[in-house]
C-alpha cells in the first residue's frame, strides 16, 4: 500500500500532462498537469479528463495519428508524435509533442496489470534539442542509482528507499521504523545537533546539502554527502523529503591517509617538518592575538653518526624511535613534538613561562640520558644538545624562532654537548658574525687574500736565527691583517680547514723551493709548519707532501710539522701510521703548545716525536706566577733528559729569555726578535743574500 501511495505521489508531481490508461483505453490516472491543460483549453471538459477528449481539439491529421497510437495495446518501445496542435476556444494554437509507451507499473505497486502511458510535451524550440521527461526513466534511475535515495513523509518517516540505501546501511523499508533524521549525526564532533540546522535551511530554501555521519544496521557509521530536497504538491503543501546519499567513507579514509603520510614522519609517527611548520605559524598568530607566550625547543642527538657507523642504520632508526617516544612522554598533551629530519627534533610548548620551559628542558636532557637497550649495546646512553627560544622575546615570527633555536642548539654543542642553551641576543650577534666571516673566508681563498708570514726562530744564547715558522694571515679588505687565531675556528666549523692547510703547505714549500734555488736558505735551518690531525687523515695528504718534497732543491730534513698537543693524545692507529710515514720521509714532528692539552707523557716515548714547543701562555706567565715558572722548568728538564728538541714560544722580554736559558731551553721565537713577517720582508732581514 505504501508503494502504491508513493507512486501516485510521484505520478501526480510529473511536470508534464500525463495519463495512465488500461488496455481498454479507460483512464486510470491523470495528473494535475493533464487536468490543467484540458481545463485551460475547454472549460467544459469534465474531470477526470479523458485523453480521448483531446481528439476533438486536434487537427484532422493529428487526430488520426494520436488515435492510432492510443488504439493499440501499446507499442513495445516508446512512440513520439511530433507537432500536434491543440486549438481551444480563447486559447489559440498550442504546439505539443506526444509520447506513448507501454508501461507495466507492477514493480512500483501502482495497480495490477499493464497499461499505456501518454505524456504531452509542450514544444520548445528547437524540436531536435528537446528531451522528454519520462517517469519510467526516473524510476529506473531510482532503482539503479549507486547513490542511496530515500523518500520520507512530512514527518521524516521512510516511505521508499532504493537498493543502494539497503546496501549502504543494512536497513530496509521495514527494518527501520524510526525517522530518517535519527540515523544522522554531525560529520564532526562538537558541531551541535544536525536536524534543526537542516530543517531551518529546508524551510528557507527548499534544499540542503552537506556532510553527515549515517548510522548503519551493524551500529557502525559511514561518512556521507547528503542532499535533501523538500517535496510539495501542486498547491505547495509539504509532502515529504527526498535524500540522495553519497558514501564518502573510503574516499575520506584514503584522503586522510594521504594527508597523514604528507604530515607525519614515517619512522617515529611524529609530526614532520611540514605539519610542525603549520602548527608553529598558528601558534604565532594565536599568541599575538591572545597576548600569550610559548617556548620552542630544538634538540639534536650528539654523536648519532657514530651509532649509525658502528651499530648500523637499523639500530640508529631504533634509537630515533625511542628518543621520539621519550620526548613525547616528557611534555604535556597540549605540546607538539616533531621530527624535522635526521636526528633533529623540535618541541612546541604553548602558553608556558620561561622558567617552566627551562625546567622542562633540563628534565628532558636528563631523561634522554637514561639507558636505552639497543641491539648490540644494551646500555646505551644518548646525549642531546638542546636550544630554547621564547616567543616573543627571542623572535616574533616562525622563521626567526626556528633559526634562533637552531643557533642556541649549536651553541650547546660548542659548549661541550649534552646540555641546554637558551638563546640570547649576544648569541645571535655571534652567529651572524660567524656566518659573515665564513662567507668572507670562502671568498678570501678564491680572491688570494690569504698570506703566509714567516717568524724567525733563534738561539737563546746569541739570538742567531736557526729557521722560521710559517704562519697564516688573512689580509681582510675591511679589518686589515688578521692572525689565524681570529678565523681558524670558523674554518674548522665549516670544513674549510683542510683546504686552507693544503694551500699553506703548498705555498710555503714553493717559497722554500724558491729561496733554496737562490741559495738563500741555510742548510742547517728548519722550517716549521702547522698541520692538524684531520689534515693528516685526508686521503691524498701524504701524496701531496711527497710530491712537494720531491721538487728540486728541497730537503725533507728542513721541514718540521707541528701538530697540536691534542692530536698526540691517544691517536688512532691510522694517525700513528701516518706519523710514522712522515718520519720515514725525513720530516721532523713537533708537539705544538705543549702543556695546554691532554697528551700523556707516554707519547714522548712511544710516538715518533722529534721535539716539543712550550706554549706561550706559560712563558709569558713565568715572571708573575711561580707555578708557571716551575712548570716550564720541569718541562725543560724532562724534554732535555729525553733527548728531544725544545723551543719556547711567545718570548717578548729579555727577562724571559734569560730565565729560559737558566732552565736549559736552547731555542725560542717571539716578538723579542721579530713578529711574523711577509716573505719579502723576512728574506730581506734574515736570509743571506743570493
UniProtKB/TrEMBL annotation:
Residues 434-690 form the EAL domain. Residues 144-186 form the PAS domain. InterPro entries: Biofilm_reg_signaling, EAL_dom, EAL_sf, GGDEF_dom, Nucleotide_cyclase, PAC, PAS, PAS-assoc_C. Gene3D superfamilies: 3.30.70.270, EAL domain, PAS domain. Pfam families: EAL, GGDEF, PAS_4. Residues 292-425 form the GGDEF domain. One of its GO terms (molecular function) is catalytic activity. This is Diguanylate cyclase. It comes from Malikia granosa.
Amino acid at each position: 500500500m505504501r508503494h502504491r501511495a508513493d507512486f501516485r505521489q510521484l505520478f501526480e508531481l510529473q511536470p508534464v500532462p500525463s495519463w495512465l490508461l488500461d488496455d481498454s483505453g479507460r483512464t486510470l490516472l491523470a495528473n494535475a498537469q493533464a487536468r490543467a491543460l484540458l481545463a485551460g483549453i475547454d472549460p467544459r471538459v469534465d474531470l477526470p479528463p479523458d485523453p480521448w477528449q483531446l481528439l476533438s481539439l486536434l487537427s484532422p491529421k493529428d487526430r488520426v495519428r494520436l488515435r492510432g497510437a492510443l488504439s493499440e495495446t501499446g507499442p513495445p518501445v516508446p512512440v513520439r508524435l511530433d507537432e500536434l496542435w491543440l486549438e481551444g476556444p480563447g486559447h489559440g494554437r498550442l504546439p505539443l509533442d506526444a509520447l506513448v509507451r507501454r508501461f507495466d507499473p507492477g514493480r512500483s505497486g501502482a495497480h495490477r496489470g499493464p497499461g499505456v502511458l501518454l505524456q504531452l510535451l509542450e514544444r520548445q524550440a528547437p524540436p531536435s534539442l528537446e528531451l522528454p521527461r519520462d517517469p519510467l526513466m526516473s524510476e529506473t534511475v531510482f532503482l539503479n542509482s549507486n547513490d542511496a535515495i530515500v523518500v520520507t513523509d512530512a514527518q521524516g518517516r521512510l516511505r521508499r528507499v532504493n537498493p543502494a540505501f539497503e546496501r549502504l546501511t543494512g536497513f530496509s523499508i521495514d527494518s527501520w521504523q524510526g525517522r530518517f533524521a535519527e540515523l544522522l549525526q554531525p560529520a564532526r564532533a562538537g558541531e551541535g545537533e544536525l536536524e534543526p540546522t537542516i530543517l531551518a535551511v529546508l524551510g528557507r530554501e527548499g534544499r540542503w546539502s552537506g556532510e553527515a555521519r549515517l548510522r548503519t544496521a551493524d551500529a557502525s557509521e559511514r561518512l556521507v554527502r547528503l542532499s535533501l530536497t523538500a517535496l510539495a504538491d501542486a498547491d505547495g503543501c509539504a509532502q515529504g523529503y527526498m535524500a540522495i546519499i553519497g558514501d564518502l567513507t573510503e574516499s575520506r579514509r584514503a584522503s586522510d591517509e594521504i594527508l597523514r603520510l604528507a604530515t607525519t614522519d614515517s619512522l617515529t609517527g611524529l609530526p614532520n617538518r611540514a605539519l610542525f611548520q603549520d602548527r608553529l605559524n598558528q601558534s604565532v598568530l594565536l599568541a599575538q592575538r591572545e597576548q600569550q607566550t610559548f617556548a620552542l625547543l630544538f634538540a639534536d642527538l650528539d654523536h648519532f653518526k657514530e651509532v649509525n657507523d658502528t651499530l648500523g642504520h637499523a639500530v640508529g632508526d631504533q634509537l630515533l624511535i625511542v628518543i621520539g617516544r621519550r620526548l613525547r612522554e616528557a611534555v604535556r598533551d597540549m605540546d607538539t613534538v616533531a621530527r624535522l629530519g635526521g636526528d633533529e627534533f623540535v618541541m612546541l610548548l604553548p602558553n608556558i613561562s620561561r622558567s617552566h620551559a627551562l625546567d622542562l628542558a633540563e628534565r628532558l636532557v636528563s631523561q634522554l640520558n637514561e639507558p636505552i637497550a639497543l641491539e648490540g649495546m644494551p646500555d646505551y646512553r644518548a646525549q642531546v644538545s638542546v636550544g630554547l627560544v621564547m616567543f616573543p622575546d627571542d623572535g616574533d615570527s616562525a622563521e626567526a624562532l626556528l633559526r634562533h633555536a637552531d643557533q642556541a642548539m649549536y651553541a650547546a654543542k660548542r659548549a661541550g654537548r649534552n646540555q641546554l642553551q637558551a638563546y640570547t641576543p649576544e648569541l645571535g650577534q655571534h652567529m651572524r658574525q660567524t656566518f659573515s666571516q665564513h662567507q668572507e673566508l670562502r671568498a678570501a681563498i678564491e680572491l688570494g687574500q690569504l698570506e703566509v708570514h714567516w717568524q724567525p726562530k733563534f738561539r737563546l744564547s746569541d739570538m742567531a736565527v736557526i729557521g722560521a715558522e710559517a704562519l697564516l694571515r688573512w689580509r681582510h679588505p675591511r679589518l686589515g691583517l688578521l692572525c689565524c687565531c681570529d678565523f681558524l675556528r670558523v674554518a674548522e666549523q665549516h670544513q674549510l680547514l683542510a683546504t686552507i692547510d693544503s694551500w699553506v703547505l703548498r705555498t710555503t714549500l714553493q717559497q722554500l723551493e724558491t729561496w733554496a734555488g737562490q741559495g738563500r736558505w741555510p742548510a742547517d735551518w728548519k722550517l716549521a709548519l702547522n698541520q692538524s690531525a684531520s689534515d693528516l687523515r685526508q686521503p691524498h695528504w701524504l701524496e701531496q707532501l711527497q710530491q712537494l718534497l720531491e721538487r728540486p732543491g728541497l730537503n725533507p730534513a728542513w721541514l718540521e710539522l707541528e701538530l697540536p698537543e691534542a692530536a698526540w693524545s691517544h691517536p688512532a692507529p691510522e694517525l700513528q701510521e701516518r706519523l710514522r710515514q712522515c718520519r720515514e720521509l725525513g720530516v721532523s714532528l713537533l708537539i705544538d703548545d705543549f702543556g695546554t692539552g691532554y697528551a700523556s707523557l707516554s707519547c714522548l716515548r712511544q710516538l715518533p716525536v722529534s721535539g716539543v714547543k712550550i706554549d706561550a701562555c706559560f712563558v709569558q706567565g713565568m715572571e708573575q706566577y711561580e707555578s708557571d715558572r716551575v712548570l716550564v722548568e720541569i718541562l725543560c728538564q724532562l724534554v732535555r733528559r729525553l733527548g728531544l728538541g725544545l723551543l719556547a714560544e711567545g718570548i717578548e722580554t729579555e727577562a724571559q729569555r734569560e730565565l729560559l736559558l737558566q732552565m736549559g731551553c736552547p731555542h725560542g721565537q717571539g716578538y723579542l726578535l721579530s713578529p711574523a713577517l711577509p716573505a719579502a720582508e723576512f728574506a730581506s732581514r734574515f736570509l743571506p743574500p743570493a
